[in-house]
Write a structure and sequence with these properties.
- 3 copies of one chain form a homotrimer.
- The longest helix of chain A is centred in the middle third of the chain and has 14 residues.
- The first copy, chain A, contains 3 helices and 8 strands.
- In chain A, strand 5 and strand 6 form a beta hairpin.
- The radius of gyration of chain A is 16 Å and the shape is elongated.
- Helices cover 25% and strands 36% of the residues of chain A.
- By secondary structure, chain A is an alpha+beta fold.
- The interface between A and B is medium-sized, with 33 and 32 residues.
Chain lengths: 139, 139, 139
């Protein structure tokens, strides 16, 4: 069995934003030399998500609007978590909807994806460095 | 280490609908010959989900009603994604709530499940062929 | 390849409640002797979740309030599932938001975590014994 580990670092300039990290994960698969196995990609911070969906800008804006409706940033003082001095309680909730991680099959040395599957990092409390873990096991 | 891969194809006749795919996944475990490991089951399309819950018809209807409330289909033109000619923005959001994938333990050559766990495919934009990936690794 | 399996049993005294299970999962990693691999932790019951987030009491209360808003317990008779004699339809929906499982990288014989990542069990229909599965594969 082979294993591979790498961190991807990101710094989203706004509070919220999406980054397509598919090519970085693809590079990890190649670098690992693993041809058959499973690839875990997870946010290592707890106010961001890794998820798989379509690379379509309008959809990303729809997602952002929708999450802001489900778990609004305001009122900041309405969240108990923010009484600790934070202002990111909403970010923890948004991340709960979108999920922490994805697990992807590796087949023939490649991400085993449907036509439109792309991997995204969704930042909900940006303007600082965050990291994503890629762990691959297989042979 | 052994690996196994198979696609399950589905064609849900309505826009939305649930299909119990537990027996198909069970067949994959048997076919794989893998006795100990992990089994990934994921939607390969981005407007459907794979999730684990109860096989109870009333609950499924509750889920469908609830998702339609959280991310309504109408108004179609209210979503930026639908300006591309699609009418399925809500399907992408509903799938985000229910998730893309499940990872299941394989123990003694079987799905290692609690009493009521069943695997479902949830279609949010049906009336065409879609596929689900089953990837098993172990020994 | 090595595999390891253990069940963690819990009995949350109220209908809803959170339990930090990070140290129990850590103990499983040590007991397994696995140094590199993947660790699956999933609820074996379908009215509870396993998820990763911050160990902050105010945030946990925010999450509980927020889930009750997204999928309220009342009115109990408003859910079709509850016509079967249950009163836990909301628990199935809340669990759908928070997720069934997490997959965690094992590196150097430890949970490969960011600074604030902690594993929680979220009970949505407690006052009875429930179980969580830990399955680790690797070497």
């Amino acid at each position: 069995m082979k294993t591979f580990r790498k961190e991807i670092w990101l710094n989203v300039p706004d509070r919220r934003g999406l980054v397509n990290i598919t090519s970085e994960v693809n590079d990890c698969i190649k670098e690992s030399g693993i041809r058959e196995g499973l690839c875990l990609v997870n946010a290592m911070n707890i106010t961001s998500s890794v998820f798989i969906n379509d690379d379509e800008r309008g959809l990303h804006q729809d997602m952002d609007d929708w999450l802001e409706k489900l778990a609004p940033h305001e009122s900041v003082n309405g969240y108990r978590h923010n009484l600790t001095g934070e202002d990111n309680a909403d970010a923890h909730l948004k991340r709960s909807v979108m999920g922490r991680e994805v697990v992807i099959a590796v087949t023939d040395g490649r991400l085993d994806f449907g036509t439109w599957e792309q991997i995204f990092y969704f930042e909900f409390d940006g303007r600082r460095r965050k990291h994503v873990l890629v762990k691959i096991i297989g042979e």
